[in-house]
Amino acid sequence: MKKTVSRQRLGFWSLTALVCGNMIGSGVFLLPSSLAKFGSISIISWLCTATGAILLGLVMAKLGSAFPKTGGPYAYCEAAFGDFIGFQIAYGYWIAMWVGNAAIAIAFVGYLAVFFPILTQNHLYSFFAAAAAVWFLTFVNLRGVRQAGMVQLVTTALKLLPLFAIGLFGFFFADFHYLQPFNATGQSHFSAISGAATLTLWAFIGLESATVPADSVENPKRNIPRATLFGILLTAVLYILCMTAVMLMVPNQQLLHSTAPFADAAKIMFGPWGEKIIAIGAIISTFGTLNGWILMQAQIPMAAAKDHLFPKLFGKTNKAGAPANALIISSICITLLLLLTLDQSLVTQFTYIILLATFSSIIPYFFTCIAQLILFVRKRELFEGTHFLRASVITVLAALYAYWAVIGSGQQLVFYGMLLLLSSLPFYALLVWRQARA
């Protein structure tokens, strides 16, 4: 008899936790310091970015409901533009995921070092700690999306508690004089808002998370759009509350030079134990984020492999329905990249690679918006009940926002991002050649 593979499913709350957990990572704990050089005008940037993220979320929600196929942005771009663009999106998106996961693993060890200082004193220990976290969560994901979803739900709930505590109760310790200067850049308000918005967008990378594992979602037409929008709204409210509260508690000049702004705020609220509380929150945050992105890193190559755009081994699943080969290969790539960080001279290059990975995540957002406009025409029957004029206006606004975000990334980053996209061409040619021989 043929063995049946059990299909595990992600429910609404697990899916929402995946969206929130993938967006709320290690970056949120450092952003107040990064934004201090702009002044309190960065609060407006948060509002602009939150609006842009909601517009992109509406696009993802509409496509996720009409086109519930594993792969998210890759699946939509492949359907709209064909195999070549689909392959490029999958290629760049997959690289961005496992490179980003290496950075998250390093951040996890950095926060863990608050309790175990030897991790920062011995690079070999830090490597083994980061690799252990990656492979433990890879094992969790190999057991299926249900187990990964439970880990994501628990860690997201725990990571939200300290952030909401600062966001809600921090205002009792507020000093509104700390909002000065409003614009610390010396440039126009528009330039300051644009510069800060580029930073704040990094905090929303992952908003498409609910659309990627679509084949493993309960009632995807209903749960994908609901989880996407609820997750983005919850995250946006949390970010704006937290960032404003920290700015009101810590003077701008102190914030500008702080390496742990949330810890500074927590000390004011909770006393000497504040730093430890925030460190625990950051450990949980990075661990949960790493879990969510490890789940995601296998879904994209699996979806591409099923469409014959990635090697077949990426599409094979185990008894739990998990894409085992894609998980293991991706985690091997993370481990190799972690080995490179043992050499301190590579730290600067590695940091730039992470920015490049973030840029590579923005490109699929823009392509997805244009893909929806094309699918409105080619597959109109999938969007039954859609008010096309309203949906098209939302899509165009989301595309303009994504295009603005690409421009805001800077010339150098766009240059290297283009090189990354061009590097996919030889691999696509090899794939076509092998298919022709077969």
Overall pLDDT score: 81
CA-atom Rg in angstroms? 21 Å
Q: Could you give the distance between the termini? A: 30 Å
CATH T-level fold name: Amino acid/polyamine transporter I
Shape: globular
Structural class by secondary-structure content: mainly alpha
| Helix residue percentage | over 70%
Overall CATH architecture: Up-down Bundle
How many strand segments?
A: 0
pLDDT below 50 for ≥5 consecutive residues: which ranges? 1-6
Put simply, the count of helices is 18
Proportion in β-strands: under 5%
State the domain count: 1
- The CATH class label is Mainly Alpha
Largest sheet: none
CATH superfamily: Amino acid/polyamine transporter I
N-to-C series of helices and strands: HHHHHHHHHHHHHHHHHH
Describe this structure in words.
This protein has 438 residues and is mainly alpha-helical. It has one domain: Amino acid/polyamine transporter I (Up-down Bundle). The protein is built from 18 helices and no strands. It has helices at 12-23, 31-35, 42-66, 73-81, 83-112, 118-121, 123-142, 145-169, 189-202, 220-249, 252-256, 261-270, 274-306, 324-340, 347-378, 388-408, 411-422, 424-437. The two termini are 30 Å apart. Residues 1-6 have low confidence and may be disordered.
